[in-house]
Each structure stands twice: as structure tokens, then as C-alpha cells.
Write a structure and sequence with these properties.
UDP N-Acetylglucosamine Acyltransferase, domain 1, alpha/beta, seven-stranded mixed β-sheet, five-stranded parallel β-sheet, about 190 residues
Length: about 190
């Protein structure tokens, strides 16, 4: 029989009030608070916290406080990833971000979702769908990336966009819902 955590990571319905998951979220909240309360010159402390918090990342990671996430351990980042102030990552499922990707202030990345059927929701069951963001992506301020979305390499997401479906590589996309506006000429 699968644990609630195994169900969560598999994208199946799970009980978020499970004791193991509750304990992991509590641990994460403490690490996030410590990170967010740190002084800008405490670079060694911040590196230690990120090492304990984030599932995996390459060199050159910068996360400006405040930052918030559910678990942290389900976040995997390439090299030179930058999160500006007040970003949120609800990582009940895997969030994968390629190298050299930039996130403006207030970007929100959600893997968490809830059943449409109110009877199932009333049972306090939820699920998550992985999010994948390519390399050299730039996400504008206040954008929301919804569960299950993939954003292709080198694309730009306009500020305030709500990304509800996949965005291909090498495009500028914006709006609510986010849609491709035009290709980006890489020459």
C-alpha cells in the first residue's frame, strides 16, 4: 500500500493532513522562516539553508527573500536560476526549472490542485501535477504558472500572465489565460 507521500508524488489523490506530510511541511516552514529572516550578508547561512531545503540545484542559485514553498524537496533547479522577491512554489509534485531561468517578483508556481467534485474535496483529498520550465526562460512579475504546465526553452512569459496550458520554446506569451503572442527571433 502506498503512503500518502508516495500518492502525492505520483499525482494521485492523497490526504495532506497525513502526519508524515504535516511534519515535512512544518520542517520546511521553519527553514523558510530562517531563510527569510536572514540578513543579506549571511550568504553562508543562506547557502546552508538552501542546501537543506531545495531538492537539487546547480551553482549560482539566487533566491531573494521572502520566498515560500510547501516542501522544497520537490524543487529541482539548473544553474544560475534567479527568483526575485516574494516568489511562491507550491511543490506537492515536482517542479523542474532549467539553467539561466529568471523569475520576477511575485511569481507563483503551483503543482497543487483539488478535485472538481465537491464530495471528494470535502474528504480533504488533493493532488498535484508536475511543472516543468525550460532553460533560459524569463517569467514576468506576478505571473501564475498552474499545475501540469510545461514552458519551453528560451520563452518569455509576460507580467501578470496566468499560464494554464503548455507554452512552446522560443515564444513570447502573455495574458489571462496566457497565449502565444509571437515567436522570439533568437538571431
Amino acid at each position: 500500500m502506498k503512503t500518502e507521500k508516495e500518492k502525492m508524488l505520483a499525482g494521485a489523490l492523497y490526504n495532506g493532513n497525513d502526519s508524515e506530510l504535516t511534519e515535512e511541511r512544518s520542517r520546511t516552514r521553519k527553514l523558510v522562516k530562517k531563510y527569510n529572516d536572514s540578513d543579506p550578508d549571511e550568504t553562508l547561512l543562506r547557502k546552508e539553508i538552501l542546501h537543506e531545503l531545495i531538492g537539487g540545484y546547480g551553482k549560482g542559485l539566487v533566491i531573494e527573500p521572502p520566498f515560500h514553498c510547501d516542501y522544497g524537496s520537490n524543487i529541482y533547479l539548473g544553474e544560475n536560476v534567479y527568483f526575485n522577491f516574494n516568489c511562491i512554489v507550491l511543490d506537492v509534485n515536482t517542479v523542474t526549472i532549467g539553467s539561466n531561468s529568471l523569475f520576477a517578483p511575485n511569481v507563483q508556481i503551483y503543482t497543487a490542485t483539488h478535485p472538481m467534485d465537491y464530495k471528494i474535496r470535502a474528504e480533504m483529498l488533493e493532488s498535484g501535477i508536475a511543472v516543468s520550465i525550460g532553460e533560459n526562460v524569463w517569467v514576468g512579475g506576478g505571473a501564475i504558472i498552474c499545475p501540469g504546465v510545461t514552458i519551453g526553452d528560451r520563452s518569455v512569459i509576460g507580467a501578470g500572465s496566468v499560464v494554464t496550458r503548455d507554452i512552446p520554446a522560443d515564444v513570447f506569451a502573455a495574458g489571462n489565460p496566457c497565449r502565444v503572442i509571437r515567436p522570439i527571433n533568437q538571431d
